[in-house]
Amino acid sequence: MNELDPPARAKGRRVKSAASEQKTERKPVAPALPSQDGRVIIENVAPEIDGGRAAAKCKAGAVFTVEADIFSDGHDVLAADVLWRKAEGDGAWSRAGMAFVDNDRWSGVFSPPDIGRYLYTVEAWRDTFASWRRDTQKKSAAGQDVSLEIDEAMTMLEASKADGEDAGIANELRARISDAGATDRLEVLLSAETAALMSRIGPRHGVSHRAPVLELSVDRLAASFSAWYELFPRSQSGDAERHGTFDDVVAKLPYIRDLGFDVLYFPPIHPIGRTNRKGRNNSLTAGPQDPGSVYAIGSEAGGHQDVHPELGTIESFRRLVSAAHAHGLEIALDFAVQCSPDHPWIKEHPEWFDWRPDGTIKFAENPPKKYEDIVNIHFDGEGYPGVWYALRDVILFWAEQGVRIFRVDNPHTKPIPFWRWLIREVNSALPDVIFLAEAFTRPKMMQKLAKIGFQQSYTYFTWRNTKSEIVTYMTELTGEMADYYRPNFFVNTPDINPYYLQTGGRPAHLVRATLAATLSSVWGMYSGFEICEARPVPGREEYLDSEKYEIRNFDLDRPGNIKDHIRALNRIRNANPALQDLRGFLPLLSSNDQVLVYARLTPARDNCILVIVNLDPYNVHTTQYEVPLWEFDLPDFAAIETEDLLNGNRFVLYGKTHTITIDPAQGPVAIWKLLPPSWRAGA
Amino acid sequence: MNELDPPARAKGRRVKSAASEQKTERKPVAPALPSQDGRVIIENVAPEIDGGRAAAKCKAGAVFTVEADIFSDGHDVLAADVLWRKAEGDGAWSRAGMAFVDNDRWSGVFSPPDIGRYLYTVEAWRDTFASWRRDTQKKSAAGQDVSLEIDEAMTMLEASKADGEDAGIANELRARISDAGATDRLEVLLSAETAALMSRIGPRHGVSHRAPVLELSVDRLAASFSAWYELFPRSQSGDAERHGTFDDVVAKLPYIRDLGFDVLYFPPIHPIGRTNRKGRNNSLTAGPQDPGSVYAIGSEAGGHQDVHPELGTIESFRRLVSAAHAHGLEIALDFAVQCSPDHPWIKEHPEWFDWRPDGTIKFAENPPKKYEDIVNIHFDGEGYPGVWYALRDVILFWAEQGVRIFRVDNPHTKPIPFWRWLIREVNSALPDVIFLAEAFTRPKMMQKLAKIGFQQSYTYFTWRNTKSEIVTYMTELTGEMADYYRPNFFVNTPDINPYYLQTGGRPAHLVRATLAATLSSVWGMYSGFEICEARPVPGREEYLDSEKYEIRNFDLDRPGNIKDHIRALNRIRNANPALQDLRGFLPLLSSNDQVLVYARLTPARDNCILVIVNLDPYNVHTTQYEVPLWEFDLPDFAAIETEDLLNGNRFVLYGKTHTITIDPAQGPVAIWKLLPPSWRAGA
Q1: Is the peptide bond before B47 cis (omega within 30 degrees of 0)?
Q2: Per the omega criterion (within 30 degrees of 0), is the bond before A385 cis?
Q3: Which end of chain B has less neighbouring CB within 10 Å, N or C?
Q4: Do B444 and A1 touch (CB under 8 A)?
Q5: Backbone torsions φ then ψ of B327, nearest 5 degrees
Q6: A73: closest CA among B383, B293, B337?
Q7: CA-CA distance, A70 to A77, in Å (whole number)?
Q8: Residues whose CB is less than 8 angstroms from the CB of residue B494 and which lie 6 or more positions away in sequence, other chains included
Q9: Where in chain A is the domain with CATH 2.60.40.10?
C-alpha cells in the first residue's frame, strides 16, 4: 500500500519528487484511478437503526419520513430524492423530492401502500441549472453583463433530453427563447417555468449513490394500534368447578367487544403435563383436581399443535376464531417454547432437549431454583435445525387455523438468530402475522428483539408510576426507539399484579387504564382488571389464587367495576387519531408532582387530546398547568374551545395557564379534546 | 422469497400445515440452513463513526478504549475481547479481554504502538465453564447434590486443549482432580486457578464475529498536542520597506521557540501573480510596490512547487527547515489549491481550469462578488485525474523538503473525494504527514473533512466568547466528535481579528490565549497577537493594513505585550498531561456568568488543572465557584493543596465552595494545579 497513483504528466524541470522516487518501486500493475464518488455527501440518514443493520417499522399507508444530512463542496445548489421499493423482486425504485430543512438537513416522505418489506435510500446531486439560475439572478440584479451566462444556459437547455410531457414543454421553451431578444431571453431562462422543467430534465452533476440502502418493515394497522384483552379460556364456564371451553369463550365475545377491545389473547391452550405438575398458587405439589400451569405444555394428549382436551377440539377452536372475527375481534395465541416432561417431542425427538450425564433430562432452572415441570428446547447441537423447523411449523399450523397474532413467551431466553429466522420465514409467507415479544428483561435485549423483527413489545410500563418515571420513559419510547419498537402497554398480566394496583383500589385502576390507553397506541389488560381484582400473594406482585394454576370465576358485574371507563377509553381512542400512533407525546408543565398533564398530538396538529391525571389514588390534588396553545400558533391569552370526552361537556379555556383540583374518589382523570379556532373554521 | 426452509421431519398425523403446502410450490434448489450466527449480540460499538464509514483517531502509544453492548439470550456467563491489527498486510489480530461495565456495556483497551492505520473489532462468546462455575457455586451453597455437575466439568476440562504454559497447568489440575475425593474435586474445579485456566482454554460457545471491523488512524503526538505560531516570512526583515527572506525567518526562530511554540506555520510562500493583483487592504488595484496577496499563487517565476524569488530559493528554504528542526520547531506550509491568472499551469494545462463560452478563463466568484486575481482548479471533467496527481505531487515535493504539516486553505470548496484520496495517498507513503483543515463553514462539512482524514481542524473558537458559548462548544468537541475531530484553537488568524480582541485590549488577549491554550491540546496564534495588535478595518473582523496584502514590521517588544504569559501557558501545557489531550474538560459551578471556571483532568485523575477566567476585560468580577473535590473521592470539607502555576505560589483550599474576585487589569486569569492528598503521598 505504499504505492502511489501515477503522475499524469512528465515533469522534468523540477527537483525529483518523492512521487517519482516511489514510482521506481511500483509493481507493474495498473493502479485504480482515484475515486470521484461521493462529492455530494449523504450522511446520518434517519431512520437508520444500528448503522442499517436493523429495519425501521411503519404501518401501511402511513407517511414515512426520511431525513439526511446532504451537502457538498462549494456553493452549488443541491437537490435530493428519497427512493423506495419493495425489498423482494427487482421492482423499480419510486422517488420523491426531498426539501432542505436547516443546517444541511433534508427531509422527504413516502407512503408504502402495502404490508411487507421495503427498501429505501437517498439520492442527491448538484443541480447545475439551479446554480446557474441563482448566480445569474444575483449578477443580473447587480447590473452585470450576463450574455455569457445566457449562452451557458442555452447550451444546458439544448443538451437536456426530455421525455413525454416534458418534451413538449422543452420544445415550446426553446422556440420562445430562440424567437426572443436578449432581455426577454434572460427572462424566460430565469422563469419559474424553466426552473421547474430543468429540475426534472436538466444536468445532474455528481449524483451520489453512497447513501445506505435501508430496510423498512411495513405492517398492518393492528401492529401499531390495537387494544388487547387477555383471558384464560378454561375460566370462562361461569363455574370455578367446571373447565371452560372454547364455546364458553364464544359466549363471552360480545362482552369483550362491548368494552371496545379488538384483540383477544389466550395464554397457552395446549395439553398440560402431569409430571411435577404445579398446584394452586404455584405450589410444588398439585392436588388431583389441580389443572396445572398452562405453561407446562404437552402431555399424552399432544403438544404445541394440539388443544387441551377439556377446552375442545381444533374444530371448536376454529369456530371460536370465526365467531371472534364476526365480532370484529382477532385472536392472539401464546407461543411458549418449552415443554412439560410429558411432551410427545421428548420421546419423538430426544435430540431436541438437554440431557444430564446420568441420562436424565435437564429441567429448567435458575440456580439454586429448579422448575421441574418444564424442560427447555435445545436450539443448537443436535436440535438444529430440526426443532427450528418444527417450531416454525407450530406457528404456521395455528396461522392456518386463522390466528395472525402471536404473543411470544420469554423470547429473551431463546437465541436471537432463531427469532430473526422464524419471523422472517413466517412473514415471507404470511406478511400479516404479528409477533409480540413478552420479554421483561434488560433494556438492550428488549430493544434487540424489536430490531430483529418483533412487531410489538412488552414494556416497563407497569413499573413506571411517578410523573418523572412516566415522562422519562415516554420520552425514551417516542424518541429514536419509536423507529423500531412498538410498545404494548399492558396494565396488568397474569404474571404482574402491580403494587400500585394492589394498594390503590378503584382510583388506581382508573389511573393506570387511562395512562395506558392514552400514552400508547397499543394497550392491553388481563381479565379482572375491569373489576379491580388485585388481591396479591402477600408481598409479591403475583395474583392470589392465580388463574395460571387454577380455574377461577369472577363476577364481572360486581360493584365498583370500571367497565364504563374502559369502554370510554377505547371509544375515545377509536375517534381520535392522536391516540392511534405512539409519537406525539407532549408532557406539559404541571406545578404539582402528583398531577401528570400531557397532550397527545397528530403531526399535522389537527387532533389534540389533553390528559390530566391525579397519580395519587388517595388524596385530592390541585395543580397549575399549561394548555399548549403554542402548538397551534395561538397567543398565550387565546381562548380555546374544549370538549370533555368522558362526559361530553363543552367549555372554553381562556389563556395558557389554568388550575385544576382533582379528587380521586370522584374520578382521578380528565380527558379533553382541544378545538383550536382554525379547526372550527374548517369544520 | 415466499419459500420456506424444509421441515426436518415428516409429520403425517396432524392437519396439513401451511409449510407443507408451501413445499409443493418450492423450486428444486437446496435452501440454505437457517443462520445460527449472532447468538451473542455485539452492538453499538464505540467509537464507531457514521456506522463504521469513517476512521476513529488516536495518537501512537495512547490508550484507546473500545466499548460495546454485549449480551445474549438466557443467563450464560459471557466473555469478550477487543481485537486489533495493522490495516495493511495480513498480520494476526492482537487481543485483550474486555470487562463488564453496566447495563450490558463492556469496555476494553489497547495501545497502538506505531503511527498508521489499524483495524479493531470485538469478539464475544458464551463462556460455558464460567456459567457452570457460577451455577454450581449456587447449587453447592444451597446444599444441592452436584455430583452430575462435577462430571460435566470433568468432561469440559478433559476436552479443552491447552498449549504452551497452559498445557502444564491443565495437566497438573487434571492430575490433582483425578487423585482427589468428591469434595476436594469440587473445590479444585471451583477454584480461581481453574477458572483462570478455563477462561483461556475452556469451551467458547457461539463466538460472535458479527461486530463491525472498524478503522483507527493513529497519528504522532503533534497531531493532537502542539502549539502553533503563524507568521508571514516576507514581513521578517525588520523593515517594512524590505521584503523578508527565509534567512530572516531563521533569525526569528529563537524568539518563537522561546515563546514555547513547536509548529511554525507560513501562509503561501510561492510566486505571486501580477494580473488583477490586489493592493493594500484588499483594494482592487495594486500600486507598483504592492507585493500582492500571497494567495494569488503563480507567476512567470513559477507555481506551487516554487518559492517567491524575494523569499529565497528552495535551498534557502531547506536551510530554514533544518534550522527550525534544530530549534525543536516544525515547519507547516499552506496548501492553497488556487492559481493567479499568471500561474504556469494555465498555459501548460488549460484543461485543469474552467473556461467561459467566449474563451476567457473563469475567475473565482461569489455572485455578485468577483475575485479576479484568482482562478480555481477544475477537479472533474478534463482536469481529472491529471490535476489530482499534480496536487498530490505538490505535497510530496514539499514533504521532500522536510515539511510534514500542511494547513489546507478552504478545503470545503474542493471535492471531498479528492481530499479522501489525497490524504490516504500521501499518508500511505508518509504516515507522519499531518493535514490541518482550514474550513470555516457549516458544522457538518467541517466534521466531514475530519472524518475523511484531516488530522486537525480549525474551529469556531474565535466566535465563542461567553461562558455558555464556550461550555456548549467544549461539550460538543469533547463528546463523540473527539473520536475523529482534533480542534486547533487559533486565537486569531490573518483572516480573523475577533471583535473581542479589537475592543478588549490586553486583558482580552490574556483571556483568549489562556482559553485556547488550556481548553484545547492544540492551539495557535498569528504573529502580532503577543503584542495585542488588533487594529481593525473599521466594522470588520479584518486586520487594518493586513500582512495578506503588504509587508509589515511590528515591534515585538512594545510595552503591554503578553509574551511572558504566552511563555507561561506553553510551559504549563508541556508540564501537565491534563492539557495535552482534548478530553477531560469539566465545567464547574460559578455563580457569576462573567467568570468561567473549569478543570482539565487526565482519565486517571493524576493531573488536574483548575482555570478561572474573568471573561469581562473591563470590570472586576466576583464569583462563588466549586473545586471538584468529588473527582478525587474527597469529601466536601476536604482540604486540597494548590499551586498557582503562573506565580508558583502554594496554598490550601479548604472545602468545596470558594469565592474569588478577579480584576482584569491585574490579570484576568488564574491557572492552578490541584494536588489532592493521595498524590502527595505518592510523590
Answers
A1: yes
A2: yes
A3: C
A4: no
A5: -90, 5
A6: B337
A7: 11
A8: B230, B232, B267, B526, B543, B546, B547, B548
A9: 41-218
d(CA A336, CA B435): 59
CB–CB of A444 and B138 under 8 A?
Answer: no
Q: Is the pLDDT of residue A239 over 90?
A: yes
| Residue contacts between A and B (CB atoms, under 8 Å) | 260
Per-residue b or e along A461-473, where b marks 16 or more CB atoms closer than 10 Å to that residue's CB: bbebbebeebbeb
In percent, how much of chain A has pLDDT > 70?
Answer: 95
Q: Determine the 3-state secondary structure of B351 from DSSP.
A: helix
Q: Annotated catalytic, A626?
A: no
* Residue B291: all three cell numbers together: 507585493
Q: What is the mean pLDDT of the segment spanning A274-301?
A: 94
Nearest residue to A570 via CA among A585, A583, A580: A580
* β-pair type (B330-335, B263-266): parallel
For residue A448, list chain B residues with Cβ-Cβ distance below 8 A.
Answer: 41, 43, 71
pLDDT digits (tens, 9 = 90+) for B319-354: 999 999 999 999 999 999 999 999 999 999 999 999
Write a three-state SS string for B581-640: CCCCEEECCECCCCEEEEEEECCCCCCEEEEEEECCCCCCEEEEEECCHHHHCCCCCCEE
What integer is the mean pLDDT of B667-681? 84
**CA-to-CA distance for B360 and B374, rounded, in angstroms?**
13
| Alpha-carbon gap: A101 to the closest alpha carbon of chain B (Å) | 14
Average pLDDT over chain B, rounded to an integer: 93
CA distance B395 to B432: 13
CB-closest option in B138, B385, B430 to A34? B385
Chain A's closest residue to B20, CA to CA, is A393
C-beta separation of A241 from A71 below 8 A: no
Nearest chain B residue to A387 by CA distance is B8
Query: How many whole angstroms separate alpha carbon B183 and alpha carbon B177?
Result: 10
Beta-bridge partners for B119: B85, B215
Sign of CA dihedral B307, B310, B313, B319: negative
- Chain A residue numbers with beta carbons less than 8 Å from the beta carbon of B212 are 51
The answer on pLDDT for A28 being more than 70 is: no
Q: List, in sequence order, every residue forming a beta bridge with A204; answer none if it has no partner.
A: A127
Catalytic residue among A67, A81, A262, A409: A409
Q: What is the ipTM of this complex?
A: 0.91
**Residue range(s) in chain B whose domain bears CATH number 2.60.40.1180:** 585-680
Tell me the average pLDDT across B381-405. 96
The distance of A648 to chain B (nearest Cα, Å) reads 47
Rg (C-alpha) for chain B, rounded Å, is: 32
Contact status, residue A119 vs residue A213, Cβ threshold 8 Å: yes
Whole-structure pTM over 0.90, yes or no? yes
CB contact under 8 A, B443 and A103: yes
* Pairwise CA distance, residues B316 & B402, whole Å: 12
Phi then psi for B625, rounded to 5 degrees? -140, 170
Instruction: From chain A, pick out residues whose CB is under 8 angstroms from the CB of B366.
Output: 75
Optimal mutation site among A11, A15, A16, A17, interface B, most CBs of chain B within 10 A: A17
Point out the residue among A34, A356, A388 whose CB comes nearest to the CB of B34: A388
Fold of A41-218: Immunoglobulin-like (2.60.40)
Return the closest-CA partner of residue B372 out of B308, B496, B495, B283.
B283
Domain B585-680 has CATH 2.60.40.1180: yes
Across A520-545, average pLDDT: 97
pLDDT of residue A582 exceeding 90: yes
Residue B438 annotated as catalytic: yes
Chain B positions in Cβ-Cβ contact with residue A414 (cut-off 8 Å): 73-74
Q: Order the strands of the B64-72 sheet from edge to edge.
A: B40-46, B64-72, B105-110, B99-102
C-beta atoms of A390 and B416 within 8 A: no
